[in-house]
Write a structure and sequence with these properties.
Layout lengths: L1 H30 L2 H24 L13 H8 L8 H11 L4 H6 L1 H7 L4 H35 L8 H7 L1 H18 L2 H25 L13 H7 L1 H6 L4 E3 L6 E3 H29 L4
Antiparallel strand pairs: 1-2
Helix pairs in contact: 1-7, 2-7, 3-7, 3-11, 4-9, 4-10, 7-8, 7-9, 7-13, 9-10, 9-13, 11-13
Length: about 290
């Protein structure tokens, strides 16, 4: 009995070491890419723009921060729905992951990876976890920047106990794009083509949401449109946290929805979507053949 337990512990420890080796491998690759540092600079610039510059220089319904004690939550969420829903999330998520799998196939290094004593599951999820860590870094930058500038503009900020929740929720936006890019990378194997297809998919989903919004109204069906729902979910955190039992006014419609039910339905659909993309990508990657 003890021998079986020891064997299980050894296997678990061995698997974790192999998984960590893939995470470190992917982290080293990203640390050598200029685009990683460009993305960090982009996230910092965007965070400052939405938290400080836009309330000053672009006042209006679409961009302006409503201010108040929960302004930091609004700034953190508006990043993902302003200009065009999901545009910024798509650019960041796709840029950091379009070559994660595809470049390994394109350059031939996938042969070396497959020859290592690591399962394909370990390779795939190791790369995915490293992207989540990178997404978490971007999330921390966004939330801290929003808190600092909201404090500067509007005074003491409330709801800071929700900061960790928001920090760990924002990566959900990126991971939808990351997992879909990784799945496409196992099939297409050309980073530039993966990036182009991701843009095309995003345009199609935004177009679909816009058509429904103008023809039917902003209803719960929009919550289940892939790619856009995760971005809208982050934006819905502001009314959910500041007034969970109240009504949320939705553009392009005379309907009002309850903040809690509206946000929870978005969160549920975004989580299901991310899981579907992650495990679909895992399946495609495990079945991929070296050409």
């Amino acid at each position: 009995m003890n021998a079986a337990k020891d064997s299980y512990k050894y296997q678990s420890y061995n698997y974790m070491n192999k998984l960590l080796s893939v995470i470190r491998y992917e982290g080293v690759l990203d640390s050598k890419k200029y685009k990683t540092y460009a993305l960090v600079a982009m996230v910092i610039f965007i965070s400052i723009s939405f938290a400080y510059l836009l309330p000053h220089f672009a006042p209006g319904y679409f961009f302006s921060n409503p201010g108040g004690k929960g302004a930091w939550i609004f700034s953190s969420g508006t990043i993902f729905t302003s200009v065009a829903t999901g545009l910024i999330a798509m650019l960041i998520g796709t840029t950091m992951s379009s070559d994660t799998i595809s470049s390994e196939f394109e350059s031939g290094t996938i042969t070396r990876l497959f020859s290592m004593p690591v399962s394909r599951a370990g390779i795939y999820f190791g790369k995915l976890i490293e992207k989540y860590i990178l997404s978490l870094l971007f999330s921390i930058i966004i939330v801290i920047t929003s808190i600092v500038f909201s404090y500067y503009l509007y005074g003491n900020q409330f709801y800071l106990s929700w900061a960790l929740f928001v920090i760990f929720t924002i990566p959900l936006v990126f991971m939808g794009f990351v997992s879909l890019s990784m799945m496409l990378g196992s099939i297409i194997r050309q980073p530039s083509l993966v990036f182009g297809i991701m843009i095309a998919i995003w345009i199609a989903m935004v177009f679909m949401a816009t058509v429904i919004m103008f023809r039917v109204g902003f209803n719960y069906y929009i919550n289940f449109i892939p790619i856009t729902n995760n971005s809208v979910y982050i934006s819905s955190l502001y009314p959910l946290i500041t007034n969970p039992s109240g009504k949320i006014h939705l553009s392009y419609t005379v309907l009002n929805n309850v903040s809690k039910s509206y946000s929870l339905s978005l969160g549920l659909s975004a989580s299901i979507e991310a899981l579907i993309f992650i495990f679909s990508g895992y399946y495609v990657f495990t079945k991929a053949r070296i050409r």
